[in-house]
Each structure stands twice: as C-alpha cells, then as structure tokens.
Amino acid sequence: MKPFNPTIRWALWSLLASTSLASQAAEYQIPRVQGHVNVDGDLSDAAWTQAKTIELQYNTWPADNTPAPVQTTARVMEDGENLYVSFIAKDPHPEQIRAYFRDRDKIWEDDMVGIKLDTYNDSKLAYEFFINPHGVQADAIENELTKMESDAWDGIWHSAGKLTADGYQVEVAIPLRLLNFNDRLAKQTWKLELLRFYPRDVRHRLSASRIERSNPCWICQMDTVQGFAGATQGNHFTLVPSVVASTEQTRDIAVPGSDWQTESSIEPSLDLKWGITPDINLNMTVNPDFSQIEADEAQVSMNDAFALFFDEKRPFFLDNADYFYTPLDLVYTRNVSQPDAGLKITGRHDQQSFAFFAANDKSTTFIIPGNISSDIGFLDEKSNNAVLRYRYDVGSDLSVGWLSTMREAGDYHNFVHGIDTKYKITDQDKIVAQWLYSDTAYPAELAQQLSGEAKLRAHGDDLSDNGGYFAYEHDTGVFNWYSRYLAYGENFRADMGYMPQTDWNKMVHGAAYNWFSEQAWWNHLELRGDWDITHNEAGELLEKEAEVEFSVWGPWQSEVHTVLTNRDRVGSRLNGEILQVDSNTGLFTEKTLELSAIVQPTAGVYYEMESELGKKLDFRNNRIGDGVHVMQELRWNADVHTQLGLRHTYRTLDADSAEVFTVNLTDLRLSYQFSVQSFVRLALIYSNVHQNPLNNAGNVTARSRDLGTQLLYSYKLNPQTLFFAGYSDHAMTDDDIQGLTRDDRSVFLKFSYAWML
C-alpha cells in the first residue's frame, strides 16, 4: 500500500475542519507527566508521547475562522512545576520563513508561535508567551479592561526553537511559580489559546480557538483547560543584586577653554521579589539603577503645545504595571526619576485585585496642565510618591475600582482619589466611567520659574476640583460607534499621571464600518469618522473638529490610512496675564490631509510612513501657516544577525510667505545579534533645527544641532541576569557655539544576577 500523501491528508483535514467551525470553545484536560524534559527544541523526550495534542485549525485574522492555510500541531502537558508546550509548524515553503536573532520582545514581525493563559478564568487578564523559530522570546500581558497589550512584562521561562526541512518546531517550559493563580483549588481551570503568526503576503493569525469577530473580548473566547491538580506557587523568592560602575565627563562649552569635569561612581543596588502568598507579591528596590540603557525614541516637539509622552522602560515600574491601569492615564511613572528606594505590593484574591507602590525621589517633576498649553514644573526637593489601586469584579460583566495617588514635597502636594467602573451590557456593548477628586498645593516660588499659561495655573495652596470620564461603546466587529465625555475642572490636577490638560471638557461621537474579503486584492477596508467639541469650564470654545478616515489593508502586509480633518481651535492668549479665552484668543481653522502607510514587501524589510500637510496653527506667533510633517522609518534585516533601523522626521512651517521653522530629526540604530543572549548596538540621534528670526516674535535660536551617540554591548542570560557595557556622548552647536562640540561623554558597566530561591 502506498504511503498516504501528507498534502492530501492536510487538505482532507482542512475540509473536515471547515464543517465544524460553528463549534463552541473547546475543553481540554492537561495530562500530568513524569520524567525529565530537556528544553532544546528537539522534542525527543519520552514525556511528549503522553502530551495532549491540539491542532491550530482556525485562521482568525484577517480571515473569520476559515481553515488554517498551514498545519500546526501543538502538544501540551504539565508536571506539577511547569507547563510544557511544543509546536510543530509545517510550511510548504520553508525558505520563506521569517526568523531572526533579535533581542527579547523584538520579534513581532517574525514567524512565531504563542501561548495565551488566563489563569483565573475570569477574562480579565492574559499572560502571553511568543517564540520565533530560533527560540527568541517575547512576552506580554493583555488587559481586557484597557484593551491594551504590554510587552513591558518580562518573565523568566524557557524556550528553544529549530528550523526543519518542512518548517520549524519550538519547545517551551513555563514555570508555574511565574504565574498568579488560585492554588487553593484542588484542580485548576484556566483559559488557553495556542497561536501561530504566519506572515507572508498577509499576516495570518492562526489559532486553536475559534475567535468570533463579532465579540471584541478575545480572552473570553479562549478554550478551557483543566489540570494542575495540587499545583502550588510556593513563596518564591528572587534576589537580584547589581552593580553599576560609570565615569562621566561634562564641560560648559559656552565658556571658551572650559575643562572637562570628571565624576566616577560605583553604585550597588538590590532588587527583591517575594511571593508572600500565592496571591500577593512584593517587589522592593534599594538604590536602584534607573539609568536608561536604551535611549528613548527621538521625538519632535516644535510647535507642540502640550508635554510629550515617553514610554516607561524601568523594570521596577513595569513589573505588574497592569494592576494600576484605569480608564484615564493616572499613573505615569516617568514622573518619578531618581528614587533612593521603592516598594510595590500587588495581589489578587478571588474577585479582588489590589496594588500599591511607594517611592521617594531626589527631586520633584510634574506637568503643569492647561487648556491651551502645558509646561513642566520642577522642585529641587525630595518627594514622596505613592499609588493605591483596588478593583472588585462583581461578575464577569461588571467591575468597580478605586485609585488614590499621592505626591508630596515640602509645601507642594497633590492627592487624587477616584472610582471607576466597567459594565459589559452585551458582548458588543459596554459602559466605562470614572470620577476623580484632586487636592493640590503649589509653593509660592513655583510660578516664578514658569511663563505663559503654566505660570497662571501654578498659583494656589488650596486647589481642589473634580474630573470625570464616561464612554458608551458598541462594537460588532463590522460596525462600531462610540460616545465619550471627558471633563477636568479648572483646579483639577493629577500630577502622578500623564494629564497635560485641565479646565477642559470634551465630547466625542464616532463610528466606523468595516469590510472584509478573502478573494479581492485587499483583505480589510474601514471607513471611520468622528466629531468632537471642547470647551473650558466657563463654557468658552477651545476646539471643534470633524475627521473622516479611510483605511485599506492589502498585499505585502500593507496598510494605508487617509485622514481629512477640519479643526477650529483657539490660539495663544493675547493677554497672557489672564486665563480668559473669549476675546483673548483668535479662532483659527486648520485643514489637513494625513497619509500613513506600512508595508513589508519582502522578508526582513519593514517600511512605515506618516505624513500631514495643510493649514496649521503657528502657536508661537498666533497665525495660520502652511505645515508639512513627514516621518519615515525603515528596518532592514541584512541577515539573521544584523539589523539596520533608520527613522527620520521632517517638520516645517511657513507663514506670511516665509519660513517659520524647519526641523530634521534622524534616529539611526545598527545592531548585531550574536545569539539569543547577546548583541551589540550603535545608536546615533541627530537633530537639526532652523528658526527664522525675521518671521518669529521675540528671540529665537536661528540654528541648533545636536548629536547623541551610544555604543552598547548586552548579554542577557534572562531578563534579570545580565551584563551591559557601553559608551555614550553628546555634542551640540548653536548660534554661539561654532561646530558640533562635545559637552558630555561617559562609559558604564552594569552587572546583575538573579538568585531564585
């Protein structure tokens, strides 16, 4: 008898699968196995013969649960201490597999397989583990409340991958002590989704679970698994001592002949992670090294009226950060810059979750908000900072939460308290609401450091007010609409958060309709529009906007977005000594066209472009001008080890038939990944700013240039056991300093080791 052709077998299996697509979420028993498992990607250990086999049969995006175009077989088992998962990912064209050696959490464009776990089976949070064919890891937390996925979380788990003649295979071990779950139960019931991302002309999302497009809660639709009888987390204890040695030289280049001033330091630090109980975790840090190993992404701030947002990258603040999420961004930990010590407690028990963190800071920095512009306030005083978060899940459809934040330094304080709720009326309809109260006192000298609106807002030793948010959203996967209302009183402040607006009430109404196709050259179309209007607390108009967007997703993993905007907005105040808007500002009309695109024409090449042109408000000079903004980014994987990243931003504004300003900002990063554990990277960030003194009010710097350089070597055994060595410098020039001149240079070493007890 001739061997059965595997291609025919897969075609027949796909046909059978297509007849069962209406089935509900599956339920599986995870077998308990004995014997050693060596995580090497080989899959030859005898224990794998006892594992539960699960096929990834659904193509869930952009298709709608059609049969998967390629075969992927997963096997799942546990031994009381680890969850083991293996994948055999077949590929009819293995030469097209996209897989590169990259740093952790940098594989999102690769072929990869993944595991999602909801360990409380309540559809609130899911752990995510992804692995590319070389075994490179990425992990994240998905939060159903905020609809966000954050790869800031880094767990210590084990994986290995291997390319094969007909695809690739991956082996994974996830220690149970890494996960939060209710170990008082005799047997665990979790939600599980097994995934494969198959990026070719289209980036297919393949799954073992049927994910209905009409239900926006994807965690809710994951399969159910049972097992892990008697599993316990134990009181795991991790101690991470580290040491940072650095030498920095600075000089005042505005003073001719200024000598370099040298400062060297050796700073030990200690991080502690302790599972006090299976439900409660403690994080502590003493004398932490909060230096930025990876430079922030360069941003252009010229002609922006409000403070820029920068992502958090420091492990202490990132760990379990999802516990602090609320509908409004009230916890922005970049406000805490140089703490001597910090403490964080997070926990979950049945339907309750809670979180607390406290940290001091060597100085105090916060946003002074406004309704036309914001600024940064700084106090050269130590501060105490704390956040308390509590949430109670009444059921699967209703949650209620509380948040308190505190910042205090000398005569300054800011306290915020508030309640929030989310109610899922149906699978397609939900209500989200939050109410806040703040109490703030500013020291008398703060206003003297500031100018403009911020100076007027920084007065007062007894400021208190309310803020609130209400949203109704309806989403069927094809059609969605929403109404949102956001209001901050004149004296409302939330200095622990990222909240650059106050005295600001905004109403938004929007809707979108989607089309999907599996035959046309496009696979997804969306037409979206919204209208919003913003007033201050006195009822004076600040902004009114109408926007329409058309988007298309097509070949080469491409997406193109076109946006037309008509916006009426007020300019700067004519009399800067009063906060009045009517008769104290002009009303200007901005009309802009935005075009953005992403395309991956071949393996290893990623290109992104964002552009905007049209009539733009010149904030500094209170007039309408002609603006152009173009950002382009290219990432090129020259081979499996080498990547070049280039990002360039160009922004210019002309008014009254002359240039107002032109900004060019370039961010170049070249990296070579020796292995899964180690890489070397060179980063260059260059800015060139020109402002026309003849077409700007007041004094401006006509020309300025900056160049920042960083060379970094990294070796990571895991996210906490690592070694860094690097060099960085900065040079600048302006109207008074001729030629790029270095004013700062440093070398640094960092070593840390995680003891898991």
- Mean pLDDT over the full residue set: 90
| Helix-and-strand structural type | mainly beta
Q: What is the C-level CATH assignment of the domain at 6-227? A: Mainly Beta
The number of helical runs is: 3
N-to-C span: 57 Å
Q: What is the strand content?
A: over 45%
CATH architecture field of the domain at 6-227: Sandwich
What gyration radius follows from the Cα positions, in whole Å? 27 Å
Show unreliable segments.
Answer: 1-23
What characterizes the major β-sheet? 24 strands, antiparallel, barrel
Bulk shape: globular
How many β-strand stretches?
A: 42
Helix content: under 10%
Reported by name, the CATH topology of the domain at 6-227 is Immunoglobulin-like
Descriptive report:
The protein is mainly beta and 757 residues long. Among the domains are: 6-227, Sandwich (Immunoglobulin-like); 308-502, no CATH class. It contains three helices and 42 strands. The strands form four sheets. It has a 24-stranded antiparallel β-barrel. The longest helix has 13 residues, at 6-18.
